[in-house]
Description:
Number of helices of chain A: 8
Strand content of chain B: under 5%
Strand content of chain A: 35-45%
Mean pLDDT of chain A: 90
Structural class of chain A: alpha+beta
Low-confidence stretches of chain A: none
Mean pLDDT of chain B: 78
Oligomer: heterodimer
Shape of chain B: globular
Order of helices and strands of chain B: HHHHHHHHHHHHHHHHHHHH
Largest interface: A-B, 34 and 26 residues
Largest sheet of chain B: none
Distance between the termini of chain A: 48 Å
Helix content of chain B: over 70%
Amino acid sequence: MTAAAIAVTRVRRAYGDAPAVDDVTVTAPAGRTLALLGPSGSGKSTLLRMIAGLEPVDAGEIRIGGDRVSAPGFTLAPEARRIGMVFQDYALFPHLTAAGNVAFGLAGAAREAREAEALSWLDRVGLKRRAGAYPHELSGGEQQRVALARALAPQPRAVLLDEPFSGLDSTLRATLRDMTMAAIADAGATAVFVTHDIDEALAIADRLAVMHQGRLLQEDDPRTVYDHPNSVEAARALGPVNVIAALARGGAAETPFGAVSAAGLSGAVSVAVRAEALQLVPGGRALVTARRPQGAFDAAWIEAGGVTWRAAIPNRGGPEPGARADVRIDPAGAFVFARKDGSV
Amino acid sequence: MAIEASPASLPAPTQAARPHRTAAPWGAIAAACAVLVCAGPALAVLAMALSAPPAAQDAALMRDSVLGTALLLAIGGGGATLLGVACATLVSVFAFPGRGFFAWALAAPLAAPIYVLAYGYSALTWAGGPLDWPLRGVAGAAFVYALGCYPYVYLATRAAFAAQSMCALEAARTLGATPISAILRAALPAAYPGVVAGAALAGMEIVADYGAAQHFGVTTITTGVFRARFAQDAPLLALQLAALLVLGAAFLMWIERRARGRRGYAAGPRWRPAALADAPRWFQIAATIFCAAVVALAFALPLGWLARLASLRPLSDVDGLAAPLFASLALAGAGALATLAFAAVAASAARHGDGWGRAAFLAAGLGYAAPGAVIALGAMSLYAVAREAGLVGGLSAGLGAALLIWAYVARFTAVGAQPLEAGLARVSRNVAGAARTLGASPLQRFWRVDLPIAAPAAAAGALMAFIEILKELPATLILRPANVETLAIRAYAYASDERLTQAAAPALLLTAAGLVPILLFTRALPRLRAGAR
Lengths: 344, 533
């Protein structure tokens, strides 16, 4: 199969007056995985459906492998795009067995060949034994795997996945995610993956696009988005941040917990500090008000000057609630953005 | 009649996908046609009654009929509700001998049209019957309504129980409630929307009934419509009475829908069947006896007696049934096909989530709630208007049959649409998109996906409509082409002449046909729950 790059350029889609997707430009390089990350209602699923050809575009264009497939007034039919899609609810055909579902998109070849092909795909996702089962007889995880095999079997140029693990519990999720990404990599397909789960996005993405209220906030490799968010919202999209309004003066912005470098900025700014960029050191400027274990880290709430921030601190040792401490802000996780309207 | 969920309460299309603004307008046009066809007759009755000057022709008939219907609703409907709740609670919550059998047998009386029950009881208790306790008048009708209509409450309440998770009962127990008080305080209140919905359905049935009320000589609004229209030749009064029926039916439908709308809060995905409470031995035996008595009184006894009467008749009687049987099958077949077409339009429009789909379902619900007599009157009035305007010719046999089929469509589209809608609702909306991304063209998608998925539901819908039409009496009585007799009309005609032994055979045939969907749907009820697709 030949993977194809997907290029979405200045695409817009509105329902009534409300734009669901507004002026979005993203690219999924051939054979790589693009993750669309954002909360519900951010327009990521609509964008995916436009790439699939299930929604028209109101403005902009979409190209798959260089072919123009969507433009205003032109929508190449989904069946002509040679893409596979895994739906959030799997959308398995209830009247067909697992094997029948996988064989659905296999055209041309003789019946026996199609059946053998479907079985081999089911085998690849570890479901050969369940080939004769109907969707309602399968567990959620099994349905997801059938949906994946069904999407990959026709050897599409690209696979689109719409929150494919959202219905599954967290342990199963991680296992299936690894299996899914391995199968996609194995097939060499381009993948566009919609999720609202930060860990999931970071785990799978070659490119990460952060969406918010129908707009693209930032698109880059995941490390860059994490280390250099271009806005408060983009910073927030990748984990808990503490945000406060401040004044930048002389290349620094002052917060109740210490100064943050604000090179090149002056006047009203928003300071965003990742929870994991706050380190508690011996001292007395801040009060630890609460602390909770959260696995690898503890969450600690610290208060200074009437402001409470959240920090992620090592899960052993350190100050207990009621103790005082000083706070060190790791500059790699502290960001300052100019503020135009005075809001945070 | 309506099994499990009622057609009058077709769930508003759940969480529509985003509006398809690019959808072809012909879908909306078809849905708009469905709205006109289904709601037309009932709305015509309302409009004509409201636009006419108030008629003071027979205030007594108006008063008596309203009083009669109110009394029957209170006594018959109340009795049906008590019986239905009691049976549903016993079957849903307790384990007792014969429970599995009673679970569906208690629904069996739905198979018999109420007028057939009425014939059965008059044969039992009137001249020549073994019981010398003649059932007549309001008491007789209320008794028959309670026995004939409790299954609506029973099925709706049982479905409400089935939708509950055991957790509610268990939570009540952990909070210190005894098994009985857990049922009274946790399970029954949660099933309350089902009770109300079922009672409203029973009420609609009582309001719409013509045959039983007529047989027992009770003046109700429905029999009043007939009397005003055909005995007193007072078409305006008939329209006004019919308009009352439309308002009453719409009110009951509103109650029913509201109750249904509130039942969604139960069962999450982790549904488990409610545990059956262990009751003392004496209670179990009493439950068995109670259920057996209900089934006997509402089904076995009256129908058994009719069967005995039928067996006393010479075999040559059967020949006389051939023509009505054929007419019934032909009318019901044609009506079911037409109904299915409109049901499919309504269901698919609703699935696409546009306003016309909802309107079509509402119109179908109104048509279903409205009594057959009203629909027939409305269709006739619209025909008269069209004829005066010179749009149609005189009432030929073909035109008459078409009017009748129209009445069937208006009345039973909801019945046909309900299984279709329910069948399609279990299928993800994304299935269509999935088929497209897998390379199927729209036409291929229709053949390979839509049709096979919808076929069983469509067949069920057509079957339901077919059997409803078979049993339909008042609309057929008003609109049938001259000399055409159906089984229902034959039974009615014999019963009106007090020739109950002859009425027995056609009545039993209708009941046998009515049993088919009962078996189909009550046996399937448990499988419609969690896990099943």
